[in-house]
């Protein structure tokens, strides 16, 4: 490709990016203009994808980290044919496919939702782990590359440490990251906040690092060529670029390297939009256009990529004919179908902690689900993900067959890795830690909900019954926070998350079944540290009723005096209290286990009325904030919970002190009903 057409294409991206922000009167043009040279060369000359089949499983993937640079991505993808000029002109407008920060859309070439800095490139690490795992399983014919683009802000976000450390440790030679180092951020120049040597930092983590002029096309190509030769280390290209490359004032003077162009349209920042567009070879009256020579070049380029993709697809077809069983497995892995598992055959120990019951299910998965990857934040023996680990091996550099990743103490990193795995496809990501540390994971959990990714969260030590570890480790408000995602709808009008707190061992099995069968949103299992008595008549078959979100555990004959509702270990406490109320007060009681209020509210009105009859007083018990259960007890019911932090003491002492015993339930109900 001639230098002239490469420069023309990069300038075309700059023109389109600046025009999008100018028309929208909001956005971030400067960085988009600076990164244009690299992204053009990457997409046109190096990335392998099929322009006629954007969801092709073996395509190279590009993960954008700085979502505010969406104009750059949309403009680049417009050159490849997935966006029209009208769509670019409607940047940030209602109903447009060009939101202010990119939202995952495989058919248009957007591989990830990005915006919260640091998560995008960490998702790329998760995708790179997935690619290595699948390539080792199915063969190097399936290998492909993961590219990612990061800015100064993403480098500064603490999550970058976890991503950099793990990618280096695992030797992900399929990962290439471009750091758009323009020394400018939103409020200041970067020298106002850091003196670190980024290259040395990544080299210390085991990366190969090359620093280049990010506008020199020969240097960009040299770096990308070199990255192809490095097979056992991730590759970082530090591209020194210019914020607002090509920007001019009305007087024709340079307006480059200005902090103001990071977050404002050129005109508002002090530059001349007209002069800048003309300087870049565009028409300021009609800036939304692809230059004719650039359009012709990209037409040929896309034709060549389609031919290249067809060659690889032919290679896959030959492999499938020679390996029919593996081929069937490959397609199943990339389907939206949940794997077939005989959940009824899983033997649970009675009266067990639900974290232990979860570990039993995970052990079964290790034998029967070959594309599950489990992670734990240095807690596998406590969150019982080691039930899975004991039947596989940790993934290490050079051997990616292990289905367990030790992420170390980095919960947010782990959550973003899981998102990247799910976005890549082909694996089922699971991540475990203590429930209180869901606080650290929340940004990644929120993006999983927004992107509708079927990530599975194992959150154990679910309540104050963590005991002696004290209030720092005792979740109180966390369940209320996470359950808000059951009330929040995604873009398809569905609950954005499935949150389950099983009440005994058999419900734990069913909770996992529900999580695995939920392929349209993330699922969370909130699990106990302490043993929980099995519910009356508990079995796998009876626990299947939990699939409706809530079900009747016990129901007395005749006119009901009270409905008791809760989830997790509190259900067995209410069963104990109900027995006392029947014996001492002659009450007729219905006890309800509500594993997921969000799922329960999706059921028919008749079913909801059967489980929670409107004309019967309701009592609820939760180990979290009372608001966690108030939606089920209703305005006239009583929701007992905690409105304070926990304390350090044995959990049975805390049960007594906080009122989580059968006797305390009995007394609370008597006061409530004025008996």
- Beta-strand fraction estimate: 5-15%
Main sheet attributes: strand count, strand direction, barrel closure? 6 strands, parallel
Major sheet: arrangement of strands: 7-6-8-9-11-10
Low-confidence stretches: none
End-to-end separation in angstroms reads 87 Å
User: Looking at the structure, what is the overall shape?
Assistant: elongated
Count of alpha and pi helical runs: 29
Which percent bin holds the helix content?
40-55%
Number of strands: 16
The whole-number mean of residue pLDDT values reads 97
User: Which class do the helix and strand fractions yield?
Assistant: alpha/beta
Query: What radius of gyration results from the CA coordinates?
Result: 28 Å
Quaternary status of these chains?
single chain
Summarize the topology.
Elements lengths: L2 H22 L4 H6 L1 H11 L14 E4 L5 H11 L4 H5 L29 H20 L7 E6 H5 L2 H12 L4 E7 L16 H7 L3 E6 L3 H13 L5 E6 L19 H4 L2 H4 L3 H7 L12 H31 L1 H10 L20 H15 L3 E5 L3 H4 L2 H4 L14 E3 L4 H14 L3 E7 L3 H14 L4 E5 L17 H10 L10 E3 L4 H13 L5 E4 L13 H4 L7 E5 L6 E5 L3 H16 L3 E5 L3 H4 L4 H7 L6 E4 L5 H7 L4 E3 L10 H8 L3 H12 L2
Parallel strand pairs: 1-2, 2-3, 3-5, 4-5, 6-7, 6-8, 8-9, 9-11, 10-11, 13-14, 13-15, 15-16
Antiparallel strand pairs: 12-14
């Amino acid at each position: 490709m001639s230098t002239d057409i490469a420069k023309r294409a990069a300038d075309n991206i700059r023109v389109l990016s600046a025009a999008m922000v100018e028309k929208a009167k909001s956005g971030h043009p400067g960085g988009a203009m600076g990164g244009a040279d690299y992204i053009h060369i990457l997409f046109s000359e190096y990335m392998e994808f099929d322009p006629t089949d954007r969801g092709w499983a073996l395509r190279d993937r590009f993960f954008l980290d700085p979502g505010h640079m969406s104009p750059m991505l949309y403009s680049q993808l417009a050159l490849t044919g997935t966006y029209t000029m009208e769509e670019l002109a409607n940047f940030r407008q209602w109903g447009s496919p060009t939101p202010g920060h990119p939202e995952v859309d495989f058919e248009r070439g957007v591989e990830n939702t990005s915006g919260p800095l640091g998560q995008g490139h960490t998702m790329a690490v998760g995708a790179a782990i997935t690619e290595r795992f699948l390539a080792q399983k199915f063969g190097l014919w399936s290998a492909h590359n993961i590219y990612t683009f990061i800015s100064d802000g993403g480098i500064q976000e603490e999550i970058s440490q976890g991503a950099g450390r793990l990618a280096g440790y695992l030797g992900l030679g399929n990962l290439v990251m471009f750091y758009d180092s323009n020394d400018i951020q939103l409020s200041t120049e970067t020298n106002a906040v850091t003196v670190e040597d980024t290259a040395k930092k990544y080299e210390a983590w085991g990366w190969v690092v090359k620093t280049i002029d990010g506008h020199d096309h020969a240097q960009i190509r040299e770096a990308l060529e070199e990255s192809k030769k490095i097979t056992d280390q991730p590759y970082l290209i530090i591209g020194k670029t210019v914020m607002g490359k090509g920007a001019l004032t009305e007087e024709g003077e340079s307006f480059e390297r200005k902090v103001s162009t990071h977050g404002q349209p050129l005109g508002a920042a002090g530059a001349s939009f007209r002069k800048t567009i003309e300087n870049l070879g565009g028409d300021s009256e009609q800036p939304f256009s692809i230059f004719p020579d650039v359009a012709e070049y990209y037409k040929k380029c896309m034709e060549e990529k389609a031919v290249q993709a067809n060659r690889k697809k032919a290679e896959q077809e030959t492999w499938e004919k020679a390996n029919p069983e593996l081929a069937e497995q490959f397609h199943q892995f990339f389907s939206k179908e949940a794997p077939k598992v005989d959940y009824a055959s899983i033997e649970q120990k009675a009266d067990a902690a639900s974290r232990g019951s979860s570990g039993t299910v995970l052990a079964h998965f290790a034998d029967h689900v070959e594309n599950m990857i489990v992670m734990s934040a240095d807690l596998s023996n406590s969150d019982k993900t080691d039930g899975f680990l004991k039947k596989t091996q940790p993934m290490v550099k050079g051997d990616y067959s292990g289905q367990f990743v030790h992420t170390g103490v980095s919960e947010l990193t782990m959550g973003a890795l899981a998102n990247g795995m799910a976005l890549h496809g082909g694996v089922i990501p699971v991540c475990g830690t203590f429930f209180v540390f869901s606080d650290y994971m929340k940004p990644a959990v929120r993006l999983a909900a927004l992107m509708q990714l079927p990530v599975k969260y194992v959150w154990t030590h679910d309540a104050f019954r963590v005991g002696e570890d004290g209030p720092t480790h005792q979740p109180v408000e966390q369940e209320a926070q996470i359950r808000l995602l059951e009330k929040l709808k995604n873009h398809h009008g569905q609950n954005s998350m499935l949150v389950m707190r099983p009440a005994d061992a058999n419900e734990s099995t069913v909770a996992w079944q529900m999580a695995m069968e939920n392929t349209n949103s993330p699922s969370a299992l909130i699990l106990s540290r302490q043993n929980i008595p099995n519910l009356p008549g508990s079995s796998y078959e009876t626990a299947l009723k939990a699939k409706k979100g809530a079900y009747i555990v016990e129901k007395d004959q005749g006119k009901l005096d009270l409905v008791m509702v809760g989830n997790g270990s509190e259900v067995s406490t209410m069963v104990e209290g109900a027995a006392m109320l029947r014996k001492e007060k002659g009450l007729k009681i219905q006890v309800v286990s509500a594993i997921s209020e969000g799922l329960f509210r999706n059921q028919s009105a008749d079913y909801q009325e059967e489980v929670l009859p409107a004309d019967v007083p309701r009592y609820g018990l939760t180990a979290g904030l009372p608001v966690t259960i108030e939606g089920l007890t209703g305005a006239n019911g009583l929701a007992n919970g905690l409105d304070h932090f926990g304390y350090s003491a044995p959990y049975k002492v805390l049960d007594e002190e906080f009122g989580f015993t059968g006797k305390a339930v009995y007394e609370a109900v008597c006061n409530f009903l004025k008996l």
